[in-house]
Task: inverse folding
């Protein structure tokens, strides 16, 4: 807290409605203006003594550096945009990204989309904020990706990968993860017939997971694989189980869900509405490793995405490119960890 | 998409590395610079014909208005800060707020805290971004609240209310909600003994909910109320049930949890580890109405916060004060909706 004299001075500044500038701070502390600005620049070299002197003046005058004005001079806004297609499925991801950017003195401008296809409208808004970089947990078209290159704005995809476009991405290996799940199912007893509940049609992640599961199932000689579609939500998992029952007349040995939340819906529908035993009658597997997968009600067999490692990789990959735009694109693919829940019969 | 000639012109601009300004657009379209800026100002009056003419030039030249530079002129950044104490418990809230600000052309700078007590460090960062306003789903001290007044930055609390400080807030009525839950429990048969699982010690919401429950229980003549503490997380709900068992030797008739997620932990611990029937042996109630409360595994009796109405109220309350800083502080208190789940025995 400022002392009495300082507080009066602060009030004087306030009452004359004059904005306190770094010049005022420099004058008051008897140092150069560049010394003041170094005290507010993350990583800039400044002696302890100098910092103490400047901070005393800052406190007395009630000075706040203007990050936006500084951004115009340094050509850095110290803001990044994070675009997520559905925050409700990614609270941990946004939380992790936000914490890691904050550690680096960078702030997160959050854009949430109702549908992946809304992204082009969002980009128009992103451009206006002159962000230093963008993390996208949403699908972009090659044309949209090209506009980042034109504008020299580093872009890192989170859990979206592109085979024919050179762009940075951090992903969980969806294919490998699904194959591990299928291997678990095939090793476990009596799994012969299968159904897959997919995510929404515009989700690339869902397509990859479904493709991974189908490929491995075919390799294992499974000929009977029914595919029904969901939207990643709990209710769609319930509805999909009903659809499987309608189309097959009974239940397959295992239901493979494109995410955990649909697996919860499927399990609840089987147990509480259709009176099937999970895993006695039907095994259920998911993907993601959300918190509720470990809850005793579900104890779901799933692939746990290493969210902390992936978030750290995405943030450092982006900031490296903000510092050095010449770095080549890079793809980092993290293996998920198989969670052996009791939703697969032994 | 731009036609061939236009695309060449865009490339010329790009190749000379000259930044396209609103002056260039005005020249190219043969209109005034103020007409160009009106086209980018939400709500500004501009004829259809004028807009078409300007937008054609914008498209041809590849112009993007600089929101940050505009912010320096208009003294508006068109950004607001949203401070949340734990994003994992509030994904719906942040999602709703973000969608509603986006509709208004305002962007969200997200700050997440690990603990409510980290807020003062976060405020130092918020000031640097010259945001137009702040929504705080975190507790601030009266001194911290006073700095918003000094800086003329509108502040709206989300689910935090203050009795002795004049400040805007949008809340769910925690006390009324808890009373309704207790009434439900008391009306239902054979509930005589109770335990309360509280949230973290620094959560004002948890304190209010606990106080509401205790007051109503006393009014109803319940003398036996054990209080144990949790941290809003699932595991803490499990642990709290163990602690209740250790301290009482058996289970009370009902367990009142300060949020839904701890109630899920309590239910799972009772059912799957301790072999109690919920609700046959023990009733469990929560608070919040998160999505999983409606899942068949839990079907939890709880108070559903009207998140959409509360988010809309918080956003419009804040933006009204950005437009007109003279508006007096206002508190809006929304009633929660009692969800009659099957976790209370009949």
Result:
């Amino acid at each position: 807290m400022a002392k009495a004299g300082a507080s009066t001075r602060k009030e004087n500044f306030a009452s004359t409605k004059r904005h306190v500038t770094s010049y005022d701070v420099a004058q008051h502390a008897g140092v150069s203006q560049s010394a003041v600005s170094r005290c507010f620049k993350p990583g800039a070299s400044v002696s302890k003594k100098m910092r103490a002197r400047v901070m005393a003046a800052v406190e007395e005058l009630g000075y706040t550096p203007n990050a936006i004005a500084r951004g115009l001079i340094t050509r850095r806004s110290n803001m990044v945009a994070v675009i997520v297609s559905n925050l409700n499925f990614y609270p941990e991801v946004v939380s992790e990204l936000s914490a890691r950017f904050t550690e680096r003195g960078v702030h997160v401008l959050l854009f949430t989309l109702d549908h992946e296809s809304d992204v082009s409208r969002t980009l128009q808004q992103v451009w206006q904020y002159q962000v230093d970089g963008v993390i996208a947990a949403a699908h972009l078209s090659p044309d949209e990706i090209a506009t980042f290159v034109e504008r020299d704005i580093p872009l890192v995809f989170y859990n979206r990968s592109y085979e024919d476009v050179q762009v940075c991405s951090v992903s969980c290996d969806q294919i490998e993860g699904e194959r591990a799940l299928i291997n678990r199912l095939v090793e476990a007893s009596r799994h012969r017939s299968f159904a897959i509940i997919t995510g929404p049609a515009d989700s690339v992640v869902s397509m990859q997971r479904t493709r991974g599961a189908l490929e491995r199932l075919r390799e294992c000689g499974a000929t009977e694989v029914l595919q029904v579609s969901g939207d990643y939500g709990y209710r769609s998992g319930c509805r999909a189980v009903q659809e499987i029952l309608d189309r097959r007349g009974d239940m397959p040995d295992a239901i493979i869900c494109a995410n955990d939340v649909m697996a919860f819906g499927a399990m609840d529908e089987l147990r509480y509405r259709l009176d099937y035993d999970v895993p006695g009658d039907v095994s259920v597997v998911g993907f993601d490793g959300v918190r509720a997968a470990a809850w005793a009600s579900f104890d779901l067999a799933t692939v746990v995405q290493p969210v902390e490692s992936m978030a750290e990789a995405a943030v450092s990959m982006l900031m490296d490119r903000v510092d050095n735009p010449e770095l080549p694109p890079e793809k980092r693919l993290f293996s998920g960890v198989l969670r052996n829940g009791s939703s697969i019969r032994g």
Q: What stands out?
A: The domain at 174-306 of chain B is CATH 3.40.50.2300 (Rossmann fold). The CA atoms of residues 255 and 284 of chain B lie 5 Å apart. The radius of gyration of chain B is 26 Å. Residues 1-17 of chain B have pLDDT under 50 and may be disordered.
